[in-house]
Design goal:
alpha+beta, Chemotaxis protein chec, about 130 residues, six-stranded antiparallel beta sheet
């Protein structure tokens, strides 16, 4: 498994964290698509950078939806192998053509009105 995380801070205190935990093969496929490469041509450092970039893009997108200037985005990081956690306030399973590929987890200390939602935006269908 590969896991990248990014924190969302308010007044310098981490209030939420988004974690992307994917099977290594799925993470390699995502990286290959991001870099327009073949999967067997993806180096380990490229995979790690792509996982951190995914966390950064999603975290930045969520941050742009908040209407408060007090929020800041942390620096994306990888969780070391074997240190993955099973904790999470909310969890969304990810699959690819019906096969389990991993999950996205939300850890939150924020008040309810500021918490990240795992529901799709209006007009977007979950499949």
């Amino acid at each position: 498994m590969c896991e990248s995380r990014i924190g969302l801070y308010r007044e310098k205190v981490r209030q939420q964290e988004i974690a992307f935990r994917f099977h290594k093969d799925f993470a390699r496929m995502l990286t290959a698509n991001l870099l327009s490469k073949r999967e067997d041509g993806v180096a380990e450092d490229e995979l790690e950078d792509a996982m951190k970039e995914l966390a950064n893009m999603v975290g930045g997108s969520y941050l742009s939806r908040l209407h408060q200037d007090a929020w800041e985005l942390g620096i994306p990081h990888l969780l070391s192998p074997g240190k993955e956690t099973d904790e999470g306030l909310r969890q969304l399973s990810v699959s690819y053509f019906g096969a389990p590929a991993g999950e996205i987890r939300i850890h939150s200390n924020a008040p309810c009105q500021d918490r990240l939602s795992l529901l799709p935006p209006k007009g977007l269908q979950q499949v």
